Amino acid sequence: MPVLVLDAGNALFKSPLRSEDPSEKARAELLLDQMEAMGTAAMAVGARDLSLGVELLQKKGRGAKMKLLSANLTDTAGKALFPASTVVAVGGLKVGVIGASPEGDLQGLQGKPVIPAVLAEAKRLREKDKVEVVVVLAAVPYGLSRQLAQQGEGLDFVVQSHEGRGPGIAQQEGLATVIPPGERGRQLARLELSVDGAGPFVDASTVQRDQESLKMIEANITRTKERLAATKDETVRKALEETIATFETRRATLQQSVKTGATGARRTHLLSYKQLGTDVPSDPAVQKLVERIEPPGSAHH
């Protein structure tokens, strides 16, 4: 199965504030190196990636395969500091990936308004690069990511990172879906896409729930018909007949939904998480690198 690895940003530092602790830089460099080694295609530049300034990111980004992205981050002269997007081919599918940084002042840099910058880039990707899926790595507050999705013509997914929110559900906002990626590297979010259909992506778990609901409706219809056959009271019979009619209307709706999902007429997504706990073994070589920065027994180990 083709895989695309992305990071929504806010990955490198524990705080957006500058720290004089020398281990902070070493930790950030190690994280960037390991993301590169894992084949991460792109990362958005968030507030907690700029704690030591933009120079560290620009230096580490030179020649790297992993693209550091921001459609709206500029210097004081208004010059863009990072590419707005990148296009990645995954199993024959062209995916456009856009980065978004917080608005306002960021360590002396300027975060321009997110929504117009991202929508303009999405339009360019659709028209010029002919991408089939657009993913926004949104290192911005949750409320803004929802607004972006609601107004986001041309967007498919908005992967949000800013407040350190934990795992959640894929939330449909307009035609786009907001995805919570997990927090502080403790979870790995996995978004499985089926792209054989057409139109906006729908949640595959909704189709699964519809299948379960259909089974329940079928059982209710059977039981109600049994009660109808057993009673001769006309008042009760009328009420049962109305109940059966309601159930059958609901059944028809669910059958259509399940049929559409089963025939692949729609593109679907399915979100799940991998908890990165003690049951997931560490890579011994990487563990040694980590322990040079945060020795066993230290406060942050």
State the end-to-end CA separation.
34 Å
Tell me what the CATH architecture of the largest domain is. 4-Layer Sandwich
Structural class: alpha/beta
Low-confidence stretches: none
The CATH superfamily of the largest domain is known as Metallo-dependent phosphatases
Tell me the helix content.
25-40%
Helix/strand order, N-terminal first: EHEHEEEEEEHEHEEEEEHHEH
Strand arrangement across the biggest beta sheet: 5-6-9-10-12-11
General form: elongated
CATH class of the largest domain: Alpha Beta
How many extended strands? 15
CATH fold call of the largest domain: Purple Acid Phosphatase, chain A, domain 2
Our count of helices gives 7
Quick description:
With 301 residues, the chain is of the alpha/beta class.
Q: What would your notes on this structure say?
A:
By secondary structure, the chain is of the alpha/beta class. It has two domains: 6-190 and 273-293, Metallo-dependent phosphatases (Purple Acid Phosphatase, chain A, domain 2); 204-262. The protein is 39% helix and 24% strand. The chain is built from seven helices and 15 strands. The strands form four sheets. It has a six-stranded mixed β-sheet, covered by helices on one side. It has a three-stranded parallel β-sheet with strand order 1-2-3, with helices on one face. A three-stranded antiparallel β-sheet has the order 4-8-7, with no helix packed on it. The relative contact order is 0.10.
